[in-house]
Amino acid sequence: MATIKAIEGRSVHQIQSGQVIVDLQSVCKELVENSIDAGATSIEVRFRNNGLDAIEVQDNGSGITPDDYETIALKHYTSKLASYDDLASLQTFGFRGEALSSLSALSKFHIITARATDGAKGTKLEFEQSGKLKGTSVVAAKQGTTVAVETLFYNLPVRRKELEKNIKREYNKVLQLLNAYACISIGVKFSVSNQVPKGKKTIAFLTNANLSTKDNISNVYGAKTITALVPLNLEFDMDPSDRPGATQSARNWSTQVDSGSHTVKIVGHISRPVVGEGRQTPDRQMFFVNSRPCNLPQVAKAFNEAYKSFNITQSPFVFADIKLDTNAYDVNVSPDKRTIMLHDQAALLESLKQSLLELFEGHDQSVPQAQLP
Ligand code: ADP
Ligand code: MG
């Protein structure tokens, strides 16, 4: 008798979903990215009980057309990518059509949506665990979409218990990620709040629809943070052996190096390596590849090491957006899309460290007059 059998469809769905939605952070990441992809200029994230009871993301984006109601939460249904070849030219965060389908498998979730042409009338969509549309009803709603995720992992007891145990830490992790989206998103207003049981609703942070990342950072971290920052504006070739050893233009916080076929630009903001202006923990560091927030532990390490040469006791504030050719990295490495594979990472890190040292040295030589004895 054959012992190898196919796993039943429902179980496959649950297993795969658990890889896309691994924690509270992945829920928020997917929903906020969907809102940005929908062209929203206002995104409100509401946590209930730090996200344990519910997470709601409301946007004023395009809304969803009724023709898509049936398929929106089915696996691999997406409006953003039709074939693998489209991946290289992708302009959106989403592309695999997995988030809503995974959320339907792992939480009690519903959507309320309205398009500009719908007046004040919206539609509430409810789904089965499989992602199949269960029913619709008419509700009052403004243009845009609200996705509500309740009791995340209610059907995965071990994960639910872990989530409950670590909820404070998880919530803080989510806030850090939301900070990154709020800081990088130009012209998008963010509002993030948390309602604890029997307590008051607290605002975690707010941004205006600013036209610069600097103003976003100021809204999120306070105007004082901004005064300790200098612009980050690096440009170099991937291959360090091609680089001239010059320290030219380090003084104006910019290192221009001959651009080759793999030119990398890193733009953003960083704290001056001045003792007393850094922080004890590296909790204010955000990294992006072409404006996509992502985990880049090696890049973070390069920043911290270079900074340590000048300020041994503290960590820098870093907001660094790495501008790369779309064929120089792969976002499709992990199911949660936070891990990015960088082509030629070793060469990039080498050039980055060199450029940062030049940048910080440039600062060292130009102590503001006011600070001289
Ligand atoms: P993906 O983002 O990879 O396409 P998702 O499961 O996250 O997959 O979303 C499926 C589809 O649902 C999207 O392609 C989009 O068309 C639609 N959608 C999801 N969220 C929103 C939203 N907030 N506003 C408008 N459309 C949305
Ligand atoms: Mg998506």
From TrEMBL:
DNA mismatch repair protein S5 domain segment(s): 217-361
The residue range of the signal peptide is none
Please give the superkingdom of this protein's source.
Eukaryota
Q: Which family does it belong to?
A: Belongs to the DNA mismatch repair MutL/HexB family.
**Name of this protein:** DNA mismatch repair protein PMS1
**Source species of the chain:** Cucurbitaria berberidis CBS 394.84
Q: Which lineage do the record's taxonomy fields give for this organism?
A: Eukaryota, Fungi, Dikarya, Ascomycota, Pezizomycotina
Full protein stretch here = 1 to 373 of 1093
